[in-house]
Amino acid sequence: MKNAYIKTWFKDYWDIFCNEFKQILADEGVMIIFVVAGLIYPLLYNFVYYGGIINDTPVAVVDLASCKESRRFTREMDATREIRIAAKCMNMEEAKGLLQKRIVKGIVYFPADYGTKLARHEQAHISVYCDMSAFLYCKNDLIGSNMVMLHEIRELQLEDFKAKGLTDEAASQQVLPLGYEDNKPYNPQANYSFFLITAIMLIMIQQIMYYGMSVLTGTNREENRSFASLPDQLQGHGRVRIVLGRGTAYWLLFMGIGTYIAIISPAIFGHAQRGNFWDVFNMLALFMLDCVFFSMVWSTFITRRETVFVLLLVVPIVAFFLTGVAWPYYAFPKFWKYFSYIFPTTFGTKAYISLSVAGGDMSIAKEMIEYITWQTMIYFFFACACVHLENWVLHHKEELKEKRDDARRRRGIDIEGDIKMIEGENEI
Amino acid sequence: MTVWQRLHAVARREMAIIRHRPVYLWGSIGGFLFCTIFFLTLMKEGTPEKNPVGLVDLDRSTTSRMVREALDATQLVRIIPYESQSEASRDMMKGKLMGYVIIPRGLNDDIQAYRRPKVTFYTNEMYFIGGTMAWKQLLTLINMGNGAVEREFMRARGYRENEILDIIEPIVIDTHYLGNSTMNYNYYISPNILAGILELLVIIVLIYSFSTELKYGTSRHLLKASGNSILVAVGGKLLVWTLIFCTAGFIFILLLFGILHFPYAGAIGWQFLDMFLMILASEGGALFLVEMVPVSRMAICLGALYSILGYTMTGFSLPIEAMPAAAQGWAWAFPVRHYYLMYVQEGIFASGFAGCWKQIISLLSFMFLPLFGLGRLKSAYIYQNYPRL
Questions:
Q1: Closest partner residue to A422 among B17, B297, B351, by Cβ?
Q2: Do residues B237 and B244 touch, judged by C-beta distance below 8 A?
Q3: Interchain CB contact of A43 with B (< 8 Å)
Q4: Residues of A in contact with B42 (CB under 8 A)
Q5: ipTM of the predicted structure?
Q6: CATH classification code of A57-174
Q7: Within this chain, do residues B31 and B59 fall inside the same structural domain, yes or no?
Q8: CB-based contact (8 Å) between B268 and chain A?
Q9: How many helices (H) and strands (E) does chain A have?
């Protein structure tokens, strides 16, 4: 008896799995999402964001002092990676005009007394006007001018100490008494694209799977089929079989697509992958399982083929911000912090960064993997509940439709009139 | 029936569709409302404070305690003490730290003996804003530390206090952030990203609206209601959606630049025009796509792929000139890119018509796109000879 149950279980599971796989392969729209979005989008994003660093931001200089110190400052700024002196203007109005025409992305202004003040050993001021239309312009304006300022300060201090009778060695000891070493171990160039692309990759896996599954669910519903109808002979059993059978089909498919997105495409573009391959792969396998159940649960509510795009195309942008890599997670208001737990990417991205980018081992990603495991289990439970719900809805279809129509009529909506207006009397 | 009556009939029909399938309204207004609340509340602080930074103090001297106190006193950084570098490094790998600083053993003695000790710090640039904040703060700290040591040295040598400041800091940079004086991330991100979301919704909802006429086979009735004029059919549908989206867009502008006092240098009228033109341009793009691909599922998939790429091609996060040359020209094909440029011209630089006429023309040109394919759409609407599903 027990063996027969196990046998039937596996047979059902296998049939559901094969059926789902066939459906995926037979649906042109789903294949477009999986293949075009899954294979081409990672390349496209990696290509568009290739580089990710802005060099030589054009800056205008307004030098009213016109002294040797200001000219030296200007020359040194021009020599930095961040700034290029694109124009030397006679006054601020001229520089402002260039800024408005977007020829320059910042202004450095030396007041007329700059040289005089330095000669008198008084504090001299320089004004830097940063273009805030993009933060990377502002960052370059700031870093370029501040680094030159620090260098200039050291030079002036050296001259000063020497003038006060200190030997070269003694003077250099007084200047910069405290040295520093600045390291950016995971993203040495502070490359904007690298941090962005890393998070986008995992969002892509989650969303492509979700959109594909939702399109298929919607199509089934439109064709009066269901993604989860239980065979009558099972007498209400078999939810786990449906969830696991369908889930395996997506999971296997995404082991290929997901590996391509998160491991192969960054390698094609030469992004740093410091982690152990199998650690990253295992983490992705779990993450994709989480995404499968996540997609199953949320696709239950999709009734038509295209609805998911109309309703939920903004989700990847929201999910990206909820990963906490752009606006940091510790600055989230409490509500959004808990809201972020809905998405597998909230934990997946952190685990992926820890393993693949920072090069940590599994013990580093342990906490996030625990969260992903919990999330997977919860979504699995909900996915089973959704199958139950779907079957309940299937058995009460007519009643529900009547109730919905009643509610709309009570709100004063003339359903028949609307249909007549939309479709005409003799159409379809 | 006059053209106006037919236009009215098509518009009434469109309203009935919206009533009949509320997904339309959820997609347009609901999604936009949610995102507006999301972004404005998520980044309401403007600048992330209390960024976690680790401190590995191997010196345990008065100087290292001073460093710790100086760091802890700032609003931007929250100090977490660690016993060893490996512990701090592990937490940074986990993403719990935005950076850490190592104060070497013997720092105090080395400073006293002018041996120029080195403080090492590590920042986590995979969490971009947090990492940058930590980096900025740690760099400031080092410079402050240098200044403090120099001041002690000069005091010992008998320099006067006012003289000391002029020597330690002979040059000061006054920074002015144009258009965002407090360097508020909310001011920077929200107006642009939410406009991108609106563009995305306009494109996808419009594609849905035009292509489902074919999918549900109701296109002939639409033409009948419009007196067999594709111009009236398209115009009537667009009228309803333009009204809906413009209302949403204008309320959004009033909310941001009026109620929430987001900075705007120019006359606000330009922003309304910018929004209006972007909505029309996106509608033009969406209609053109349906004309070229009058198959519901394909058009929506393509529209989704196109509109989601709009964020990247706006150029407000990563400027276009940082992208490969082959990708730069494509930015023109996204209405939200022109919206952003016009917003910069008016909102930050207040340059008036002289500054934004190019963007106005670019946005207007999107509206002419659908004219080329109207005939194609009409025949698709009449013959319904494309796959429906």
A1: B17
A2: no
A3: no
A4: 321, 327, 332-333, 336
A5: 0.93
A6: 3.40.190
A7: no
A8: no
A9: 19, 5
